[in-house]
């Protein structure tokens, strides 16, 4: 054996040992498999989970049913409604247009919506306030009092009442108040600036380069095949609760993206590698935005649509949750550890608690 061959063999053995040490074993993933099978019984509304370390999938699984009537099982390719995780796609589309010089985050809303009843409010509130839920605009819709209208009302119809606002809840940039209509407005701005339906803009500019070929965005009725249905348990039975059963579901700027855990994994990879936005913009979007006139008791906690937090052990988290009808979603990146966790379900499950369980599991691995 030559010296080169000997050292080559040693390098191969060491590399193999590192790979074995750093990758969870089948026995380790059995713990997660058992946990999620218990949480998603096979005859009940289901869910899907995917866990990555860098580009390596260390756990993925699909549990329960996507359609109770047809008894269709969930797979890792099944499309679920993402609820508010959709807001990150809208936020990224705004940043794409900003980077192309088509708009400024400092643009006042009056530029895009000159029909504001109170023109001063239209001038005060800016795009950046919508992206960070700091506009102070009150949600003066009443979807459950007029559920027939709001079952099919799209973004424009959901944003229209906000244009009649006569008084802000607080001055823009001083406090945080979560706002769904803010992202209906952002979707309409994308449409104005791009000159095409905002769903088509995001499909072309984000879903295609992110390699998400089956993911879709609601623009009217939701997809009929390949999708999970959302359910809630009420009075001893499961009731379907998605498009045409839940008011405001058609207003898709705040929650209209449908995707699978596999394609959300591709979305995460595209963010990490700058597939559709430059890396400087992506990093900017994932940093907490601060405001000089901030007066909320809670500190700022959001970037350009992304929520920033910490794990129990202190690692930075970047992500977004989703809740709409019976659907739930949780999309979490932990960049210091190169971890990514995504979960989607078709019934109201405590996915944030499940995510903590997965993080604890990851921290126990070699």
Summarize the structure.
The protein has 366 residues and is of the alpha+beta class.
Please compute the radius of gyration using only Cα atoms. 22 Å
Number of domains: 1
**Biggest sheet: strands, sense, closure?**
6 strands, antiparallel
Query: What's the pLDDT, averaged over the residues?
Result: 93
Structure overview:
Helices cover 34% and strands 17% of the residues. By secondary structure, it is an alpha+beta fold. The protein has a single domain (28-364), classed as 3-Layer(aba) Sandwich (Beta-lactamase), CATH 3.40.710.10. The protein has a six-stranded antiparallel beta sheet with strand order 2-1-13-12-11-10, sandwiched between helices. A three-stranded antiparallel beta sheet has the order 5-9-6. α3 (86-99) packs parallel to α8 and α3 (86-99) packs across α9.
Chart the SSEs and their pairings.
Layout: H1 3-22, H2 26-39, E1 47-53, E2 56-63, E3 65-67, E4 72-73, E5 80-81, H3 86-99, H4 119-124, H5 127-131, H6 147-150, H7 155-159, H8 181-194, H9 198-207, E6 216-217, E7 231-234, E8 237-240, E9 257-259, H10 261-273, H11 279-285, E10 307-310, E11 316-324, E12 327-334, E13 339-345, H12 351-364
Antiparallel strand pairs: 1-2, 1-13, 3-4, 5-9, 6-9, 7-8, 10-11, 11-12, 12-13
Helix pairs in contact: 3-8, 3-9
Main traits of this protein?
single chain, 366 residues, alpha+beta, Beta-lactamase, 6-stranded antiparallel β-sheet, 3-stranded antiparallel β-sheet, 17% strand, disordered N terminus
């Amino acid at each position: 054996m030559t010296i080169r061959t000997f050292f080559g063999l040693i390098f191969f053995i060491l590399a193999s040992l590192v790979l074995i040490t750093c990758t969870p074993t089948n026995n380790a993933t059995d713990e997660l498999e058992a946990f999620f099978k218990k949480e998603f019984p096979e005859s009940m509304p289901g869910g899907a989970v995917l866990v990555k370390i860098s580009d390596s999938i260390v756990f993925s699984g699909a549990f329960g049913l996507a359609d109770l009537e047809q008894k269709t099982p969930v797979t890792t390719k099944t499309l679920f409604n993402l609820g508010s995780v959709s807001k990150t796609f809208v936020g990224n589309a705004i940043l794409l247009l900003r980077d192309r010089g088509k708009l400024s985050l400092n643009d006042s809303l009056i530029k895009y919506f000159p029909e504001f009843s109170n023109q001063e409010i239209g001038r005060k509130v800016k795009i950046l306030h919508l992206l960070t839920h700091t506009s102070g605009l009150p949600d003066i819709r009443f979807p459950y009092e007029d559920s027939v209208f709001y079952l099919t009302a799209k973004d424009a119809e959901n944003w229209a009442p906000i244009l009649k606002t006569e008084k802000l809840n607080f001055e823009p940039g001083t406090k945080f108040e979560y706002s769904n209509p803010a992202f209906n407005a952002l979707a309409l701005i994308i449409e104005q600036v791009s000159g095409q339906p905002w769903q088509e803009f995001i499909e072309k500019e984000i879903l295609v380069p992110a390699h998400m070929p089956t993911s879709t965005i609601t623009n009217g009725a939701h997809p009929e095949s390949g999708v999970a249905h959302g359910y809630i348990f009420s009075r001893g039975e499961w009731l379907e609760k998605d498009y045409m059963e839940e008011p405001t579901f058609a207003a898709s700027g705040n929650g209209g993206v449908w995707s699978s855990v596999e394609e959300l994994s591709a979305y995460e990879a595209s963010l990490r590698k700058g597939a559709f936005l430059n890396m400087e913009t992506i990093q900017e979007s994932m940093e907490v935005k601060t405001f000089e006139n901030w007066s909320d008791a809670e500190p700022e906690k959001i970037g350009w649509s992304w929520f920033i937090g910490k794990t129990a052990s202190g690692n930075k988290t970047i992500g977004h949750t989703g809740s709409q009808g019976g659907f739930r979603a949780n999309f979490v990146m932990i960049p210091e550890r190169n971890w990514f966790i995504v979960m989607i379900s078709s019934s109201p499950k405590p996915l944030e608690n499940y995510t903590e369980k997965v993080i604890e599991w990851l921290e126990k691995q070699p």
